[in-house]
Specification:
CATH superfamily of the largest domain: Alanine racemase
Helix content: 25-40%
Number of helices: 12
CATH topology of the largest domain: TIM Barrel
CATH class of the largest domain: Alpha Beta
Bound molecules: ligand LLP
CATH architecture of the largest domain: Alpha-Beta Barrel
Shape: globular
């Protein structure tokens, strides 16, 4: 039997020319559940998590899965069962974690625009920490907590002003970004926070950006964080934990990010050298835990060869896979059944009425209408960013564990989409 894995995709391989995820032929899933369809490998998620766990062995660390990357209940459950905490950015995300059996005390709540209602609900649930992003938010949280007779556990997000060398829309730790407290105001902000009776200062956090494929921005950010911790503690405010924000980038198309355990060996060496080796640590990885564990399966609808370009129209679109349209992102596209070498190159596009609805430019593919393709590295920031644009139903999702494939989200129906709408009253 022939077996060939795809670069960067250890849980997806061709077995006898059929693309399989773990032990499940993806064509079987398409036949049973239709397209577009997301499939996720449980082993893929757990092995990504294991790389972080190996890196932290013997240290006090809480890994909080940044569930904005993929917030489906079945995915959250996998990480909750593996002992992860969660980084949430809305009451909706917190509600999902609790519904999936996650523990409230392992939730951290990030984001620049938490409402009073969100703060109240999170305090009521007993979450572990609020990552506060502005001085104004500190005052509001203090008031909300005092009104409830509680003290809110807080960490302050600082802006380390480090260039993560990634797409501008997903770089978050530079001076011009909306996130975090500017470097020069940090000590003052901690002193203010420590004086507010409704707050309990626990930690410090930052997040410099996403899809970072080098170690150096993390090492720079850690150095600046440690400088700040020293300055804050010298001003009399103890810092119990250091949270370095999101995780590593992934291999979409030949990128070579460091492995999580290798990066953390370097970061821990820095912490040790500066005397912070025993500090409680936190990280909030999203993309790297789920990105390469997922694929989006789609059917080829039409071929439109043309003078300038050849178009391959598929049934997945920018509402299912928004990353190419939003960030010019590259996702590999491969056939579910291996065919002879392609002789033509295609613009792979979806059915939505916008020229921005493309999934891949200039892809060598040999496929006919009715054939199926897999869009790879689609586990992160695809389903969680999907929409109903063009009144398209959201895709179904399946979680694969060995030979077993379980539907974790059914395909939406038009009735589901219209459920909360009302026709006008007769006049
Ligand atoms: N923590 C915070 C505060 C964040 O803002 C983010 C991501 C993360 C953690 C997780 O970062 P990760 O480990 O996934 O790099 N939609 C974009 C990515 C937006 C990332 C926003 N923040 C994309 O599809 O590339």
């Amino acid at each position: 039997m022939s077996h060939s894995t795809l670069p960067g995709q250890p849980f997806i391989a061709y077995q006898n020319a059929e693309l399989c995820m773990e032990d499940v032929p993806l064509a079987d899933l398409v036949q049973q559940h239709g397209t577009p369809l997301f499939a996720y490998s449980k082993a893929g998620m757990l092995s990504a998590l294991a790389a972080y766990q190996r890196g932290f062995a013997g240290r006090q660390v809480q890994i909080c899965y940044a569930m904005k990357a993929n917030s489906s209940l079945g995915v959250i459950q996998v990480f909750a069962q593996a002992g992860c905490g969660f980084d949430v950015v809305s009451l909706g995300e917190m509600t999902r974690v609790l519904a999936a059996g996650g523990q409230p005390e392992r939730i951290i709540f990030s984001g620049v625009g938490k409402t009073r209602a969100e703060m109240r609900a999170a305090l009521q649930a007993g979450i572990g920490c609020f990552n506060v992003e502005s001085e104004a938010e500190l005052d509001v949280l203090n008031q909300v907590a005092l009104d409830m007779g509680l003290r809110a556990p807080v960490s302050i997000r600082v802006n380390p002003n480090v260039d993560p060398q990634t797409h501008p829309y997903i770089s978050t730790g530079l001076k011009g970004n909306k996130f975090g407290i500017a470097h020069e105001r940090v000590v003052h902000t901690y002193q203010r926070a420590a004086a507010l009776p409704g707050l309990q200062v626990l930690g410090i956090d930052c997040h410099i950006g996403s899809q970072i494929t080098q170690a150096s921005p993390y090492l720079d950010a850690m150095d600046r964080m440690l400088d700040l911790v020293q300055a804050i503690e010298a001003a009399g405010v103890p810092i119990a934990h250091i949270d370095l924000g999101g995780g590593l980038g992934i291999d979409y198309h030949g990128e070579t990010p460091p492995a999580a355990d290798q990066l953390w060996a370097q970061l821990l060496a820095k912490l040790d050298a500066r005397g912070f080796g025993q500090r409680h640590l936190m990280i909030e990885p999203g993309r790297s835990l789920v990105g390469n564990a997922g694929v989006c399966l789609t059917e080829v609808l039409y071929l439109k060869p043309g003078e300038q370009k050849n178009f391959m129209v598929v049934d997945a679109a920018m509402n299912d896979l928004p990353r190419p349209a939003m960030y010019q992102a590259y996702h590999q596209i491969v056939p579910l059944r291996q065919r002879p070498e392609p002789t033509q190159s295609w613009e792979v596009v979806g059915p939505i009425c916008e020229s921005g609805d493309w999934i891949g430019h200039d892809r060598a593919l040999n496929a006919q209408p009715g054939d199926h393709l897999a869009v790879l590295s689609a586990g992160a920031y695809c389903m969680s960013m999907s929409s109903n644009y063009n009144t398209r139903n959201r895709a179904a999702e399946v979680l694969i564990d060995g030979k077993r494939a379980q539907v974790i989200r059914e395909r939406e129906s038009y009735t589901d989409q219209m459920r909360l709408e009302h026709l006008l009253d007769a006049s």
